[in-house]
Amino acid sequence: xLLRGFSRAGARPTSRQxxxxxxxxxxxxxxxxxxxxxxxxxxxxxxxxxxxxxxxAGVGAVVARYRSGHLPTIIAGAxxxxxxxxxxxxxxxxxxxxxxxxxxxxxxxxxxxxxxxxHYYPGEVGVLGLxxxxxxxxAAIRIPLQSQRVAASAAAVTPVWGQTPDSAMQAGxxxxxxxxxMFVQPPGLDPDTRPKPEADPEAGSSFxx
Length: 209
Description:
Helix content is about 70%, strand content about 0%. With about 210 residues, the protein is an all-alpha fold. It has a domain at about 10-155.
């Protein structure tokens, strides 16, 4: 019992560490995607909401790699993906303002108010942006869950002793069937023509007086 308790206590930090690694990499992916979003807006003067799908897929991939079966980590990854999309839209607005030679200090000091950056933020997002935010969250959840199902199905058909899954299934089918006796008939011998033992005529007179 004591050894079992130590083994469980040793397994918990590993799972917690994997969750921290997954969320840390998810933040890195979201920030990289947001930076790419802003650069595309500055270079091409457009809001490429399709980058939100890349952010969600990247976050889902790292969560599936390190903590695919942990639902709180998956949900946190989806939140990080949506936050990355929102930050990407914000960076796009900042980079476009910098492209118009607006000083960064002026942009950051006038975020609020009627003429601030945040006042125009909902219009920059739009309905299409919200749609891609939802797609990013869906990808961040779908990829880890799909990875968990694939791993579970692969473990269900794992071959034993070097067998392939097909041969293992065939062996299981053979073992599950009832055992049937097997009689081998010699070649050229008909059951009706087999020689029958002849009665001994002296056997009946052995008890005669």
